[in-house]
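Message: Study each token:
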Amino acid sequence: MKNLLAWRWEAIGMLVIIITGSLLHFVFAWLGNWPPAALVAAVNESTWEHLKLAFWPALIWGLVEYPYLKNRVNNFWLAKVAGLYLMPILIVVLFYSYKFIFGGHNLAYDIGIFIVAIIAGQGLSYYLMTKPAWPRLKLVAPVLLIIIIAAFSLLTYFPIKAELWRDSVSGGYGIGVEKN
């Protein structure tokens, strides 16, 4: 391991993100469908809502580990942002691939994909943190972070009428599960 401390933080993060993300699946209902909880918790059974379950815990974990790793690794925020983008991309690609191939949906596969995406995102973060510093690319990280935070903050409340946002149970979209 190039940086054992960074690897430990990323590995612990894998577990924290998996556990926290799994709990976020139920938080909106547990809080009586309280609209502010929709920012971070799944509000329906759309693929989009499940992407938040990896994104928000991973972002918060990055904020927790930053003070401990910022002076011990390179490219911290670039690495974290790359992982934050990889997780939802992998979830979408793997979910729709297996759904297309097998013609249906399987909860065990969904959970496996969630775990694989988190491991891959944290692994990519670690990999990029152990590479030489990329000062020019570091400038891209805050812009990409703002874009993805804005998307995850807004698109539950204002969903796009597309398959990614469609609730697989009701056929509706977004927090109000508004039907098309």
In short: The longest helix spans residues 4-30. The two ends are 51 Å apart (CA to CA). The helical segments are 4-30, 47-69, 76-102, 107-129, 135-138, 140-154. Residues 108 and 114 are 10 Å apart (CA to CA).
